[in-house]
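Internal ticket #5521
Category: modeling
Description: The requester needs a full-assembly model to guide mutagenesis choices. All entity lines are attached below as received. Residue total reported by intake: 446.
Assigned to: D.W.
Attached entities:
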Amino acid sequence: MKTILKNGLVFRSVSEGWSKQDIVIEGNWIVQMVDNAPEEEGARVIDVGGKRVVPGLIDMHVHLREPGFEQKETIETGAKAAAKGGFTTIAPMPNTRPVTDSSEIVQKVINRAREVGLVRVLPYGAITVRECGQQLTDMKSLKQAGVIGVTDDGVGIQSAGMMKEAMLLAHELGLPVVAHCEDDSLAKGGVMHDGEAAKRFGLKGIPSEAESVHVARDILLAEEIGVHYHVCHISAEQSVRLVREAKARGQRVTAEVTPHHLLLCDEDIPAPDGRWKMNPPLRSRRDREALIAGLKDGTIDIIATDHAPHTSEEKALGMEKAPFGIVGLETAFPLLYTHLVLKDGILTLEELIDKMTRKPAKVFGLPYGEIAEGKAADLTVIDLETERTIEPETFLSKGKNTPFGGWNVKGWPVLTIMDGRITWEDAKPESLTGPGKWTEQKEDQR
Ligand SMILES: NC(=O)N[C@@H](CC(=O)O)C(=O)O
Ligand SMILES: [Zn+2]
Ligand SMILES: [Zn+2]
C-alpha cells in the first residue's frame, strides 16, 4: 500500500535545512518526494500539518536485556520504548545472560527483534567470552551472524594486550571496536564521580582517569593497527582532549556522548538516590562543559542514550547498592531539544538531528539516517510546540529509572515510521494535525 505523508516540513541536511514536501512511501521505501503529491485512490494519507519530519532517530548504544534479564526489559518492551522515542534503529549491547558472545545468541536477538518488528535492531557482539576479558570471541562467526561491531560494554578490557589482540582481529574483519573505558584499578569500586558531591555523601568516588587512561591506551594501540575505535559514553574532559588530538592526527577514532552527561553534572545530584547512578558517573561541571564543546566542534561525533533499564526494586537500593544505569530512549530527543537547542542555544535543531541520525549512520557505515528517494522509509514526525512533563510511570520501557522525572520539555515524537510501517503514534490527537482526518485514517487501517 502507498502511504503519503503530507504537509511535513522535511529535514534535508544541516546546510540545506528544511523543505515543505510530501513523502510518498511504497512498501519499505521512500519512492517520491514532491511539493504536492496527488491523493490517490487506495493510498493512505497522513497529514502532519507542517510538523517536522526528520530521519528516524538512530541510537547506537542501548541495553535490551534479553536474553537473561527480562525482568528489566525485553526486546519487545525496549523496541516499544525506542519507537515511542522516535528511534527506528538501535544497537543493543551484548551484556545479556548469556552474553552475546556466540552467533547463536546474535541470531536469537535478531530473530526476536524481527518478530517484534517495531525497530531495526543491529546487535553488537562481545569482544571476550562472557565479557570476562580472558579469551577473544569468535568474531568472524559473530560478524557472519550480523553484528555491527564488538564491545564488552558494562566492563572495561583490563589488559592492554587483550585489547591489542581484539583490535587486530576486529580490524581484519572490518568491525569497529566499541569501548567501555574503565580501568578497575582506578575505579576501585566507586559509585559516583570522585568529586565534592561524593565527599558530601561520604561515598566512594570513581576518578575521571579511570576512563581517560583507557582512552589514551586504546588510541595508542589503535594508531598502529588502524582499526576504527569508538569510545562509548565519553564523560571526562581529558578523554575529549585525547579524542580531539587523535582526530587531528587523522586517526579513525569516534566517540559518543549521552543526553545525561550533556545535561547534568555531579552537583545536580540531590541525594544519594539510585536514579542518579550510572556508569560512567555524572562528572564535574567542567567535564560537562568539555563534553558540550566536544560535541559542538565535532570531536564527539554522535549522541547515544545508553538506555540501561533496571527494576524499581534494584534502583531503590540507593547510590551505594543499586546497579549502574538509567533509561533514555523515551526522553532523549525532547530533553536535548529543550535544553541544548531552545534554552541554551548550544546546538541548532539541525545539528541535534544530524548527531542523532546521519552521523551515527555514517560512523557505523549504515544506509540510514537520511530522507531521500530510494532510502528506507524511516521517518519521525516531531511536535516542537507541545510541552509535556516527563512521567516515568508512563514509559513503555520496563525501566522507570530516570533522574529526569518531572522535567517539562518540548520536542515530542508523535509519529514514527520504520521501514514504511507506523511503529508509534501519539494517542493524544491534538498533537497531530487535523484530528478528524487523522482518526479516520487510523480507522481505515484497522
Ligand atoms: N551505563 C550503565 O550505567 N550501565 C550499563 C552498562 C554500561 O553501559 O556500561 C548497564 O548494562 O546497565
Ligand atoms: Zn558502558
Ligand atoms: Zn551501556
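Resolution: model delivered.
Comment from assignee: Confidence is low (pLDDT under 50) at residues 429-446.
Ticket closed.
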